[in-house]
Design goal:
This protein has nine helices and 25 strands. The protein has 345 residues and is of the alpha+beta class. It has a five-stranded mixed β-sheet with strand order 15-14-13-25-17, with no helix packed on it. A four-stranded mixed β-sheet has the order 18-21-22-24. A three-stranded mixed β-sheet has the order 2-1-6.
Length: 345
């Protein structure tokens, strides 16, 4: 019995040694394997070796992240190409960490896990990077197309009337919000089909109700009816019959302003054929000066002035100027100022 007992003890010892050796051998064969339950950026890499895990994570993680981003607004779309984003992830380091976590707990702990089929339950987030300048530039490009300055309320004139045109709101991209949404989407495996840009309205400085204060006086000239109208606070205040430029020397059409004003002006005769021997001369106030009482310059020698030739009023008789009866021009002079608009139609 003593000899048989010894043999049994030796056999048991041999079995233990063989078991331990087998356990070590098995554990050694698993040193490059990742334990079940380990994920990298949500990708299950349990049971894979390092090369397999690297390949899978690159496929599942990086491929979606390298897709383009789209922004939409009011039927328009803008695209930020995936290659410009230059998305990078330190997959190799994350996989190495996964392998290291799989070896944690020592041999006894690993043996228990092997036997029981347990897992590690570890989630690893790799270091991610992308081109922030590309996102910032993209936001600036989108803003440049979306942003619109508000339009102030204003006046539209023709020769006979004034119309107040309502202002229009502008719009301003909420660029900080869009930048934040884009940067979140860059590193999301489930990219939205498009990020809808958000804007805020920007108000005009001058509203429809404030336009009248912008134009205390306004003039319109209807050349076809020889009628000059004075508008005060955009309401018709006075109508005058005038003379306008004759054929070939028409009073210029368009929107101008009164550039200068003078009482009893000197006439600086233009260098024109119609001026004859007077061309280039300066004629002081007096009988020889056809510009009577007042002068309001509007454009390249053309202006509004008084005349003694009242028979010419209501006709195209001047050399481009707007002639008025002397009492009328004196009255008008006191009701307008330099900068007053005049629309000639």
């Amino acid at each position: 019995m003593g000899r048989k007992t010894s043999i049994a003890v030796i056999a048991a010892a041999v079995l233990i040694v063989l078991g331990v050796a087998g356990a070590y051998a098995y554990d050694s064969s698993q040193k490059d394997k990742i334990a079940e339950g380990v994920t990298i950026a949500g990708v299950d890499v349990g049971g894979l070796d390092q090369d397999e895990a690297v390949a899978l994570v690159r496929k599942r993680l990086l491929a979606p992240l390298q897709q383009s981003l789209r922004v939409s607004y009011d039927g328009e779309d803008w695209e930020l190409k995936g290659e410009k984003l230059k998305v990078r992830a330190d997959v190799d380091e994350a996989v190495a960490e996964a392998v290291a976590e799989s070896q944690d707990g020592g041999l006894p702990g690993r043996l228990v896990r092997y036997v029981t089929g347990g897992d590690v339950s570890e989630s690893i987030s790799p270091q991610m990077s992308y081109s922030e300048p590309a996102v910032n530039q993209f936001v600036r490009d989108v803003a440049a197309e979306i942003n619109r300055e508000p339009r102030n309320a204003d006046v539209e004139a023709n020769g006979a009337s004034l119309e107040v045109v309502a202002g229009e709101d502008g719009r301003k991209l909420r660029d900080n919000l869009l930048e934040k949404e884009l940067k979140a989407a860059v590193l999301s495996a489930r990219k939205p089909d498009a990020i809808v840009a958000k804007v805020r309205a920007t108000k005009p400085e001058v509203t429809k109700g404030e336009v009248a204060a912008e134009y205390p006086s306004y003039l319109t000239l209807d050349r076809s009816t020889y009628t000059l109208r004075l508008w005060e606070n955009l309401k018709l205040a006075k109508t005058y019959t005038v003379a306008v430029g004759m054929e070939g020397l028409e009073t210029p059409e368009g929107l101008y302003t009164i550039q200068a004003m003078e009482e009893n002006p000197t006439w600086n005769v233009p260098e024109s054929d119609w001026a004859g021997s007077l061309a280039g001369q300066s004629i002081p106030p007096g009988p020889s000066n056809p510009i009577k009482a007042r002068w309001m310059a509007i454009y390249e020698g053309a202006g509004i002035h008084g005349t003694e030739e009242t028979s010419s009023l209501g006709s195209a008789a001047s050399h481009g100027c707007i002639r008025m009866a002397i009492p009328d021009v004196e009255e008008l002079y006191d009701r307008v100022e330099v900068g007053t608009p005049i629309y000639i139609g």
